[in-house]
Structure formats: structure tokens, C-alpha cells
Specification:
CATH topology: Substrate Binding Domain Of Dnak, Chain:A, Domain 2
Distance between the termini: 11 Å
Helix content: over 70%
Radius of gyration: 14 Å
Order of helices and strands: HHHH
CATH class: Mainly Alpha
Oligomer: single chain
Length: about 80
């Protein structure tokens, strides 16, 4: 059980790293502090369409939910791991 939990936590840490860094970089790009590269531009357009960006799904668990449902589900999963 400990091995599986450790693997899942490592997977979620990678996902959270991707989500947080991409959102920070998009924010900087909107302000004009950094260039908007193609992967960030793609992520931005996906979010504007209410879809989960491809760069997040590469590190994520399988999900067909739209962005709002995905974020809600992600928060619930993280809350579950806090109880362990």
C-alpha cells in the first residue's frame, strides 16, 4: 500500500508542478514579461475553451471532464491524499 501511495503522490507532484508553472508562465506572458511559446499558447487556448491543456494531461490521470470538472476532481483527489 505504501509503494502505491508513494507512486501516486509522485505522479500528483509532477502534475501540480506542470499546472503551477504553466499558469505562472502564462500570467507572465500576458503581462509581457516572457514570450508566449507555442506550448503555452496552446495551453492558454485550451483553457479559454474550457478544456484541460495537453501539457497537463501528459502528466495527469485519465479524464474526459472539461476544465472546471477536472479542477474540481483534482482538488478532491488532493484532499483525499491529505487525509493519509
Amino acid at each position: 500500500m505504501n509503494t502505491v501511495l508513494t507512486q501516486e503522490l509522485n505522479r500528483f507532484n509532477g502534475l501540480l508542478y506542470a499546472v503551477i508553472n504553466s499558469l505562472k508562465d502564462i500570467k507572465k506572458a500576458i503581462k509581457g514579461e516572457v514570450l508566449l511559446n507555442p506550448s503555452l499558447e496552446s495551453a492558454l487556448f485550451y483553457m479559454l475553451d474550457g478544456k484541460v491543456p495537453v501539457m497537463w494531461m501528459a502528466k495527469s490521470y485519465p479524464s474526459l471532464k472539461p476544465l472546471a470538472g477536472y479542477i474540481k476532481d483534482l482538488k478532491e483527489r488532493l484532499e483525499f491524499f491529505k487525509t493519509w
